[in-house]
Amino acid sequence: MNSTLSLLFWGALLGALLYVGAQSVGPAPALGPFLDPVNGVWGVAYSAEFDAESMAHIPGLDGDVEVVYDDRRVPHIFATTIPDAQRALGYVVARDRLFELEIQTRATMGTLTEIAGPAAIGVDRRSRELGLAWAARRDFEQLVTEMPDLVQALEAYADGVNAYIDSLDPADYPLEYHLTSATPLRWEPIHTLYLLKRMGQTLAYNGTEARKAWIASRVGREAADALIPVNSPIQEPIVPFEGERTLASRVPDPGEPDPDAAIQLATMTAFFGPGDYGRDPDGPIVGSNNWAVGPSRSATGNAVLSGDPHLGLTLPSIWYEAHTVVPGELDTYGVTLAGTPTIIIGFNRDVAWTFTNTGADVLDLYRERLDDPDAPTSYMLDGEWRPLDLRVEEYLGPDGDVIATDTIRHTHRGPIHSLNGVPMSMRWTVLDGQGEVPALLQANRATSVDEWLDIMSDNWYAPTQNGLVADRTGSIAIQSAGAYPIRPEATQGDWYFDGTTKASDWSGRLVDVPRAVDPEQGYLASANQQPIDPGASDAYLGSDWPSPWRALTINRLLRSKTDHTAADLEAYHTHPRSARADGFLGRILDIADGLESEGRLEPGATEAVSLLREWNLEYTPDNTRATLFESVFEELHGSLWDELEDDEGNRRATPSSAITWMLFDQPDSPWWDDLDSEMVEDRNALVARSLARGLADLRAERGPEADGGWAWGAVSPINIDHLLGLPALGRRGIPITGGNGLLSPTAGGGTHGASWRMVVELGEEVVARGTYPGGQSGNPVSSSYTDRLEHWAAGELEDLRFPRSADELRSGDHARSVLRLTGGER
Amino acid sequence: MIPAIAVCTVLMAASTPWVGWLAVPLIGCASALVVSLDRPALTGFASGALAWGVLLLWGGTQGPVGELAGVLGGVLGIPSAAVFGVTLLFPAMLGAAAGGFGGATRRLVSGRGSASGRDFAEENVPETP
């Protein structure tokens, strides 16, 4: 080969390799910097564990800060000022969870396309249409003028995050940055508000109107009102109630479809998404539990509090455990959301607190009239055309190019959707204001139950939360804190309003929110059930409450004795029985007994009854009969509510199982009839058929019971996906004791569950245990990525170290690494 | 050739932390340009793989490199051994191409045709008719 040809050959090969090395193709990173063993993805391995001693610099620190990581990789931050503690918290959270900080922020801002390209535009579009970031920006402008102290806290936190980002070489970037060729986004103080708005969306974006409209469009308004009721048919309220109860008496028969509801449905669906609760009667509930016992129910005479928030489970976890100490001012331990400068759920030396979601109706829809259906500029209000506010949203690609532009229109209430010629606007407390950061910053330093409750009353806005609190004097209390809209008289928020009149608007917020302090019963608990018995208050707080099975279970356990220990409360987290199964199985077996005595039970159903009689009513991982019961119940529920399906078999709203409970008292109701069969079924016929089919379906799907395929842990495991959904970084198929309606739920295909479990005893010294599914580190090859998973799955909590000083942690041989933070010029 | 590979390996390994992945083609090309190597492409191939191999071995003392290979393999849908393989093959190919390019350039500039540069790859390139 001559020299020129040789040169061309090698030159072309080199050029091609350099191109492959330098150029990212689609979502794939550029090969050169990615594979570089020093500066590339391999650096993820080098930063998996912390050095025993390290130092870092945060500009603007008031003094030196010592961070001691304990044997569970929990940072104990010892600072001299509160802003320094917030700076250090930002730093340590970024050190472990940098990508999580960014992805959550981008999800709210609607800028995921800047990392993932056009593939993410659907998610971004939804965020921007909702206006979460828009509302956060407005709130932040208000804070700058009205609450400069709060802005200072947000800035301090941002200083810490950014100091960590500035300290990084590309090799130190978390794995996800290497995989997406992205670089870390600098943290701005407003990002904390983005995060909290997103939490508001998770907890308070309640599409009752759409569910009710779907049902009304199939079986009429009267039936819809009964199936999506304002008052739960089974009352076990959060605020203890001893008065006379007035419960709904019967479920009306299916009626004629409501044509008006069908017309509204498309626009409502645009707000809430298609929603499809399929055959999961209580849906993928983002629910939670909390409970506390006072001295009269506690073995030691101390108040003991238990926190058990349920959320979507991810790796890394939504929670990050930390302890912040500023002598004389702050000494708080608990979990923070990555991105907030404070502990969200936790305890200090005097007080412990936790939350469950109230699930109140804090969102309303308004049927608007626009001047032009295609390009509206005005909307009608009290006989006058008022200009719509326009918000132009640009979506950028990874290279900074504009890939799409939307114009979002607002009335004075909020953003508009218009489908099929039906324009609607939305008002939602989450877009209206905020008060969560000031509430939590102050609550972290509260010294008594009363002080904590006052802080919540004065500040907390949205989402509404059942805040449970206990203190060292033995006091316990619960308050459903937040903004509940006051609607026009004699109306409720579970149907749309006439938007052409201001008379439809909210006129303020409820002052008297549900609250109980030191009740005579000696305990308090909440599990997302209706907060207050309708006999005690007729204020409209919401509708379609989750069935109170978890509340019934925990209240039964708490009532059962007067000497509860912290260990008892810990064990209740994974109590293996469910009030739902306890109740329904009894009713099903009673019906089967009657049918059997009349010789009307077919052999398959008889066998199912026989197997279910042997069930110990527990949902433990190796239990097989729990699987049979759920198969039977699913069959029953699916056939029962077939009137709510459309022609394609879609059912976008399903009544809660509490409604089914009520329907069991109406054996001849037409709801029991299976529309697909030629005969007319009543309750007994459907129960008998569900028993036989539930057993047959289970065998067809999973083989004989003896083959092991019925094990509950294999049928209903927990599935924890990575934030990006990368299978190699998630953990699926984790068997646990839990299930639908249990204190440890496995809703949503196992992707939702107990996100943080904590038990705190407030004695002379505070003693606490806790854990969450995952680990402190966001690095998939760190030993702390999933180190808590095994304990969590087994229902075991771990001792939480709560030292008063760094030396105390060291002397107990619990210190594993130290990070010294120093200040200096900005 | 072995001394040349050893020197190139050391240079590539030492400069990668500072220069990044481009250290491999730069050193591969420069060494073939400056020194008359017997087989510049083969030298670059071996040096590239060895240099990054040494760096990965060092990395193994700094953190769970094997575990990371498993995670990356899971993400990319390939065995973890293939992740190591690609990490060594890529610099090897870069080194070979750069060495070959440098050697060919040197021959062209010095006017020595193909005489000085017997190369394992050249043997497989068909003669121009």
Would you write up a description of this structure?
The complex is a heterodimer of chains A (826) and B (129). Chain A has 826 residues and is of the alpha+beta class. Chain A has 26 helices and 29 strands. In chain A, strand 16 (416-419) and strand 17 (422-428) form a beta hairpin. In chain A, helix 4 (82-109) crosses helix 10 (190-204) and helix 11 (208-219) crosses helix 12. Chain B has helices at residues 2-19, 23-34, 40-62, 65-76, 80-110. The relative contact order of chain B is 0.18. Chain B starts with a helix and ends in a 19-residue tail after the last helix. Chain B has 129 residues and is mostly helical. At the A-B interface, helix 1, helix 2 and helix 3 of A face helix 3, helix 4 and helix 5 of B.
Descriptors:
heterodimer, A: 826 residues, alpha+beta, 7-stranded antiparallel β-sheet, 26 helices, 19% strand, globular, B: 129 residues, mainly alpha, 0% strand, elongated, disordered C terminus
State the major sheet of chain A.
11 strands, mixed
Shape of chain A from CA axes? globular
Low-confidence stretches of chain B: 114-129
What summary fits the major beta sheet of chain B? none
Beta content of chain B: under 5%
Kindly provide the radius of gyration of chain A, computed on alpha-carbon positions and rounded to a whole number of angstroms.
28 Å
* Average pLDDT figure of chain B: 86
* Estimated structural class of chain B: mainly alpha
Biggest β-sheet: strands ordered side by side in the sheet of chain A: 1-29-2-3-7-8-9-10-18-19-21
